[in-house]
Design goal:
single chain, elongated
């Protein structure tokens, strides 16, 4: 009986040793014991407030952030319009924001992308806007106004327009009082 007891101890010790080695092998295989830090993209800090800028060509952007949600977006950008019966193009402005999606949350990476259609200055445009918060706070927008022949006769001129803008905005912007 004494000879079987040491044998059971050795067996138990061997089973424990195998289990410990299996746990260590699993930890090494999954990388838990790895010294490499887990990479997480940085979260952009976006304080509440009013943001905006007035650009050199009369372009502007103004919006409000409250709890990482963008509201009251309003902007004006220069577009180039070409009439079907004119040899040259003309510069115009397209003011937008009245129909922009409201209350959209700014993602953790600080880049909010909005797309919508809006009628402004008698033109119906497809609007794309990107608001980026980070080292440089930038508002990028584009407007495409396709040629619309609806309601026009064969002799009437149609107009198509497009334009892009990139403005660096800042917090604490106050729009001028009229």
């Amino acid at each position: 009986m004494l000879s079987t007891a040491p044998s059971l101890r050795r067996e138990a010790f061997a089973m424990v040793a195998v289990l410990v080695l299996a746990v260590v092998a699993c930890l090494l295989a999954t990388g838990v014991s790895s010294a490499r830090p887990v990479h997480r993209p940085p979260t952009a800090v976006v304080p509440n407030g009013t943001y905006g800028v007035l650009g050199p060509r009369g372009e502007y952007v103004v919006f409000t952030v409250r709890n990482r949600k963008v509201r009251d977006l309003n902007f004006n950008l220069q577009i180039t319009c070409q009439a079907s019966d004119a040899p040259s193009s003309e510069q115009r402005y397209f003011g937008a924001g009245a129909q922009a999606p409201q209350g959209r949350t700014i993602p953790a990476n600080g880049k909010l992308i909005l797309n919508w259609n809006e009628r402004a200055e008698g033109r119906y445009g497809q609007v794309s806007a990107e608001i980026k918060f980070g080292v440089r706070d930038v508002f990028n927008a584009s407007v495409i106004v396709p040629e619309d022949r609806a309601g026009l006769g064969p002799e009437d001129a149609a107009e198509s327009c497009d334009g892009v803008s990139s403005l660096r905005f800042h917090r604490g912007f106050e729009s001028p009082t009229p």
